[in-house]
Amino acid sequence: MAAADSVEGILTEIGFGRWQGLVLVASLLLHATGPAQQVGSTLFSAPVPFRCSHLNSSTHSPSVADDTDNKRTTTDEDLLYDFPSQCLQEIYTPVSDAGPYINRALPDGVSKISLSQKATGLPSCPLIEYDFSTFDSTVISEWNLVCEDSSFRPLFQMTYSIGAILGCLFCGQMSDWLGRKRTLQIGGLLTLVTVIITSISPWYWGVIFVRILSGTGTILMLFPMYTLISEISPPSQRTITAMLPGLIYFLFMAVLAGVSYILPHWRKLIIACNTPLLLFVPITFLIDESPRWLLQKGRSTEAVDILKKAASQNKVILSSASSVTLDKLSQMSKDIVTEKFQGNGNSTDDISTCQMLTACVKSRGMRTILFVTPFMWLLKRSLYIGIILNANNFTSSNPFEYVALSGTMGVVAILISIPLTLKLPRRTLLAGTLAFGGILLFLELPVPAEYWWAKWIMVMASFCLVCGAFQVNYLFLTELFPTVIRTRGFTFTNLVGSLGEMSTPVVTDIAVQYQWWAPSFTFGLAGIMGGALVLLLPETKDKPLPETLQDAEDRYWLSHKGIEEEVTTISKDTAKRKEAFQV
Asked: Which end of the chain lies in a sparser environment, N or C, as judged by fewer CB atoms within 10 Å?
């Protein structure tokens, strides 16, 4: 990997300092908004207790005495809570097949009809009143997504996932075509605009459409940022720069719970939690483009100038060998640089995603990576998002408490994962945490409800393990794909992963209504299967980032299979190219 080694050597000399610091600040600001965008629906569209009544209801609920004509005695079993969250067909039940309906209501003075009632147009809940003791307003209470309209509730989260899928379709191509920096700028501006529109839109379907754009914008920021920070970090600091944003993400998840408690109105909350974008967008115009991407595009002069600027800002004097390498790179033509950094004579400007995919399939190492990582991410993201969105099913009735505890567990997970990532192989750490996290969800199932504290411990321990695996996975993925397709490989993997995230509300909101054990069983199985798939991938710890498809192929055989003879055969056609790069 001569090309990779040369760039890695220069970045190692440059070290980590002020030059990378601005990019890291941008990454931290981006991840501060992540909880509101990705898991905020737990609070934005939280269910609000309600009660329904007919349009001709009196100023108070019928009393027990109102039922005397039906010759029925009301017992304790007939009594409902003040806000039972039940539709009228659930409250009014016939005494017999041909008999009259009995109103199963509380006695006088307990259940009251207030002026806060509003008409819904729903047959089973013409008038509705909400209990606003916890939230002032949520997506559900504002648009009355209850009873026959309750099926629209998952759309708020699902459409964000649809937008994320669309972002994955375009993000890789844009990042490889326009560059990491320009894609970040487009994503930041798009997300900022969608947040503003979401906070003022009076139409539910307008919000749903904007949520699609919001998911797209988030992806256009997130994945190029991971690619950029990994490509400019020296090898010794790459683990820290990849893990630290995850720490901020979970820290702000806990902050999200506190802010939502202070601002229990979903529109105000979504504005408050996305204010870091006001700093992120300007910073994207101040940072530099990735030198690796510039070299891969044949723009060697710009890449060399940025590397020299990096050394100057970090107050480092490059060695004579690195200076000679930079001088030779700056004098090379675009075709020569492209040949040395891509392993072929064509610029990626001329290679479509389909052609790149065909080249990957022909490479046994890349073929394994390309088929295994997407399914592993699908299972991992289903498990991660499933635990977060399943707040009300995993024994917690307090969404603030659940989100705050989830964020706290995430912070703990990252703090534990950082030293483990520095010591343990990536595959061992990922496989163990995903599999054991899934097993804990299975073990939670037989625990009786009265031992709620034991169920909480198991679920939170599982979430802690999954959080650590989630962040390590981002680092692992950037190290698996070569520079020539890194962002496209990243986004393709996440595109498939988004399918798992999009289907998660179906399990947490719908399947659980039929089988209470569906979430724990589904997500537990996802963790075990995801951990098993990790073992099929090559190890990347302490290895230079691959620049070409051939670099990734060599790593597969040497690092994963340990068959050096295969590398000799496979690399035979590119040996001269690699020798020529030894400058």
From this structure: C
Question: Both tokens of residue 368?
Answer: 């394994």
Using CB atoms within 10 Å of the CB of residue 59, give its burial: 0 to 12 exposed, 13 to 18 middle, 19+ buried. exposed
Decide: 160 and 214 in contact? Cβ < 8 Å.
Answer: yes
* Backbone torsions φ then ψ of 581, nearest 5 degrees: -85, -10
CATH architecture of 2-46+153-297+350-534: Up-down Bundle (1.20)
Instruction: Give the strands of the sheet with 125-130, arranged side by side.
Output: 50-53, 125-130, 118-122
Question: Which pLDDT tens digit goes with each residue over 1-29?
Answer: 444 457 778 888 888 899 999 999 999 99
Lowest mean pLDDT among 14-28, 179-193, 525-539: 525-539
Q: 437: which 2 tokens?
A: 């996290």
Q: What's the Cα-to-Cα distance from 197 to each of 87, 130, 202, rounded to whole Å?
A: 32, 26, 10
Three-class SS of 464-515: HHHHHHHHHHHHHHHHHCCHHHHHHHHHHHHHHHHHHHHHHHHHHHHHHHCC
Residue 302 and residue 334 in contact, taking contact as beta carbons nearer than 8 Å: no
- Higher-pLDDT residue of 206 and 558 is 206
> What DSSP assignment string belongs to 281-345?
HHHHTTSPPPHHHHHHTT-HHHHHHHHHHHHHHTT-PPPHHHHHHHHHHHHS-HHHHHHHHHSSS
Give the pLDDT confidence of 277-295 residue by residue, as tens digits: 999 999 999 999 999 888 8
